[in-house]
Amino acid sequence: MSSASSITSLYGSNLTISEESINDDIKTVSMDCSREERSFYHLSIDEVVRRVKLWHHTMPRVLPHYAVKCNNDLAVLKTLALLGTGFDCASRAEMSKVLSLGVPASRIIFAHPCKIASHIKYARSQGVSLMTFDSHEELKKLSKLYPEGDLVLRIRCDAESAQCQLGMKFGVQPYEARSLLQFAAQLNLRVVGVAFHVGSGCAEPQVFLRAIAAAKQVFLEAVEEGHSPSLLDIGGGFMGGMQDSLAEAAGYINTALEEHFPQSMGVTVIAEPGRYMVASAFTLVTPIINKRVTRIPVKEVISSNVALEMEVGKRSDDDGMVDTVMHFIDDGVYGSFNCVLYDHQVVKPTTLQSFAGSESITSVWGPTCDGLDQIIAAMMLPSSLSVGDWLVWEEMGAYTLAAAGNFNGFSLPGVKVFMHQHTRMYLEELLEQQSLSESGTEGSSGICSEDECCSSASSGTRPASPCNGES
Ligand code: PLP
Question: Is 0.80 topped by the overall pTM?
């Protein structure tokens, strides 16, 4: 590994330019961190860049507006800002963080149908005019606080299967849309488009056919009610990581766009991907801080894995007891693994080093005093795995750090940022182009450097330490 050169001012000293594999990078960092027994994230900027490129290649008509709620890490936001994506912000703090990076207000959608009044005022003061709504009360609020805003009506169209359904909270049924469109017209408000979100971690990509068709009907109604809609927002729902279904979803989306919103209509199409952009870019690495070998009732070993159930059956005695190992790590369900509770994620670690020999029925626990703080109820892990060894958790970028807290005083993992040389060169080129196009002179990119903005923006990561290396 070698340290970064000229883009250090953008990403800060936490960036490492490395040509090594993720596993080798992680091994190096874990050696530095082992004295402090601290978990850390490996963030691959290469992966974020790859995903954005793949998006544009797969759905060239759809402009991604990254959902900041999914992971508000500054290095991610800076990368996406540089790559020219837009941003979906749900609150004043999210807008402020994105704006502080020099992103123009026109690249932000305030995509929350139920906004706090002071946040609307803030959006107006900053010129963030694109906003979603789905109720009469929201329209009344907007007519008072932001009458010149550009409003996008969120409709409901749920995937049959999704990791997190959203339709029960937001979005009107298409048959309820007309009354809102009429009310907006009465208030002299401008409805510029239609939005939907099929559900996060959508497992039924065909839903986009239904949703885009429904959006077209609402578009036609909007025109009948005197509006001039020109924006379609197809929301999020795209899988991240191994379950990546972008190509499949894109097939349905491109087909439906061609049928209902052909290029000739001149409609701008945006999306709000969260999970897709970041899930696989983050790998969490946690040290084992304690281990306990214990004999427990079989009924306490909860697993939906048939092979594991059989193993437990084989190992249990006549009294219904079985030998298990408990491993404790320094991050748990109150921290990064809140995703197990809130985002219904199924997590499974590997070990950083390889181990020969037998395996034990193992549970994995977080560091707090709460019995709920169990990350994995049962899995097979090497019997010789011990305190000071490391567990590696892939695809931990979505809805992890963003919702993590410090219950019991446990700090959150720091984020170590990595990129390959070719990515550094690519981003540097973009930075240079942006500087030139924005000012006609070099050195004033729209994207602020670490020194200019990072200190004022909260990243949700723990304070600086020699181990996490944050500046
Ligand atoms: N847009 C809105 C309004 C959302 O509520 C969410 C997630 O909750 C997203 C986008 C991001 O969704 P995903 O991570 O599934 O892409």
Answer: yes
